[in-house]
Amino acid sequence: MFYTAHFGAAVLGCYLVAWVMLKSRWPATSPTVAILCWQGIGLAVGLSAIGIPISLGLAPYGRPPGTAFRILVNDLAGGRLPAELGVGHLALISVGLGIGVVLFWSTGASLRHAAKARQRQRDLLALVARADPAAPGALVLDHPSAAAYCVPGLRPRVVISAGALSLLPRDELAAVLSHEHAHAKERHDLVLLPFSALVRALPGVSWMVRAMAAVALLVEMRADDRARRLHTDELLAAALARFATAPSRVTPAGMLAAADHDIVARVRRLRAPLGPTPLAALVALASTTALAALPVALFLS
Amino acid sequence: MTRLGDLERAVMDVLWDRSGPATVREVVDALDGRDLAYTTVMTVLDRLAGKGMVGRERTGRAWSYQPVAGRDAYIAQLMLDALEMAGEKDAALVRFARSVTGDEAEVLRAALDKDKA
């Protein structure tokens, strides 16, 4: 029980830090630190979800989970289990290992699914997209709606529609392309991967869904900040607003009506200059590092 | 772009520009200026069939090939993916921004106007 309490404390700590981060303003000013914090939370929650049932099952050994697990493997190999280790304990250990398998499997499933969809995108783009001197480093799709996106991967593609080309002045276009290239270069798809795996593996844990949405927005902000190094804030903000308010001609209007507060948040933060990292961000980073280290240490001890 | 990718595109363009199905020979003839071997074009058409881009059927002794969908349909499909109207939430793309309507658009315009003021 002693070690289970540690895993439980890690989850509780993660929940509290996540709650504070979802309420705070500082993640918008320091998206990179916030992304690191979320990665730590994701790691701690994933490991603790495995560790809680396993440590309950290993409680009869009265040793740290790492050591107790090694003893259990030896006992199983030798065919003699301690009397106080019942079927219930073994079931709990199986549940923990099962969660580990599901996490591993759903990470793989997310990767496979994305790889297939991206291959299809690249195949189609190779056939119908064209290069255009107006959009260096990007592929152009001849379609009147405004779209700019990145197909991430080892061979990334940055794509922009003809509608976006005509919508954006040249300098705003350059800012948009910088934003997309930042996604591709920093592999932001991999930043999101652990969270889509956690959401798949822990269905019904609603704050994980909110965490994933928060990370998705932070990744956009990070890409915005990369683009800000090369272009003025006003250009990027103007491009965002132009994009978001452009009439879409491919889809029934009602389907896009889902409010997207994210864009408003991104435009707002572009109007404030980048400042130093706030103290709250550093405290959160230290906390999440400790929270991630706790279950790792328990498994290793 | 790779030479093979370039060829696939050229072959698709030939098929899209014709109204009906085409045999390998007809595609080779249409790509006259490129001086391609019959077997090269056949390989490219096989690859395209493998990717599900073209369908084929036997007419007499030769196979004839036809695009599964038009160029515009593929562009529309890519755009739907890009605008997140198709496929799953965790699908493969990272978009610049989604379109918003109504109130959100007003808030954005207001934010920008305030910026200029």
UniProtKB/TrEMBL annotation, chain A:
Query: Which protein is depicted?
Result: Peptidase family M48
Q: Which GO terms describe its biological process?
A: proteolysis
Q: What organism is listed for this UniProt entry?
A: Asanoa ishikariensis
Q: Which stretches are annotated as coiled coil?
A: none
Task: Describe how the cofactor binds.
Answer: Binds 1 zinc ion per subunit.
Q: Where is the Peptidase M48 domain?
A: 115-214
TM annotation in the entry: 6-22, 34-56, 90-111, 279-300
- What's in the keyword line of the UniProt record? Hydrolase, Membrane, Metal-binding, Metalloprotease, Protease, Transmembrane, Transmembrane helix, Zinc
Q: Which domain of life is it from?
A: Bacteria
A single GO molecular function term of this UniProt record: metalloendopeptidase activity
From TrEMBL, chain B:
Specify the domain of life of the species encoding this protein.
Bacteria
GO terms classed as biological process: negative regulation of DNA-templated transcription
InterPro entries xref list: BlaI_family, WH-like_DNA-bd_sf, WH_DNA-bd_sf
Among its keywords, does the record have Membrane? no
The transmembrane residues are none
Entry's Gene Ontology molecular function annotations: DNA binding
Name of the protein in its database record: Predicted transcriptional regulator
